[in-house]
Amino acid sequence: MTRFRIKIRLEPKNIVMLDNVVEGFDGLGIVSTGNPQTGEVTVHVTPDTYDEVMAILRNLPWPVSILNQD
Predict the structure, then answer these.
(1) If we measure between CA atoms, which residue out of 47, 50, 43, 51 comes closest to residue 15?
(2) What is the pLDDT of residue 8?
(3) What are residue 39's phi and psi, to 5 degrees?
(4) How far apart are CA 15 and CA 2, in angstroms?
(5) How far, in Å, are 20, 37, 40, 59 from residue 26 at the CA level?
(6) What is the pLDDT along the chain (70 residues), one digit of tens a residue?
(7) Residue boundaries of the structural domains of the chain
(8) CA 3 to CA 43: how far, in whole Å?
(9) Which terminus in the chain has less CB density within 10 A, N or C?
């Protein structure tokens, strides 16, 4: 299965909330923390869930910077 990685940065205090949001949408993605001190996180998604996860990230109630997508 092909997977994409969406690398983002957010306030470290919001990492757990992001994980809860992504897990709350069963099967949309998996959140892994790259550097919890700087808030760097990777969201692993499939081609089928990519657009929906991007929409969620853009509409969170806290700032999220998209670092790259591959």
Answers:
(1) 43
(2) 97
(3) 80, 20
(4) 25
(5) 10, 27, 22, 18
(6) 678 999 999 999 999 999 999 989 887 999 999 999 999 999 999 999 999 999 999 999 999 999 987 6
(7) 4-69
(8) 10
(9) N
Report yes or no: 47 and 4 within 8 Å, Cβ to Cβ: yes
Query: Which residue is associated with the tokens 């998209």?
Result: 66
Crossing angle of helices 15-24 and 50-58, in 10° steps, is 140
pTM as predicted: 0.88
**Structure-block tokens of residue 43:** 């969201």
In CATH, the number for domain 4-69 is 3.30.70.920
Percent helix, percent strand, percent coil in the chain, to nearest 5? 30, 35, 35
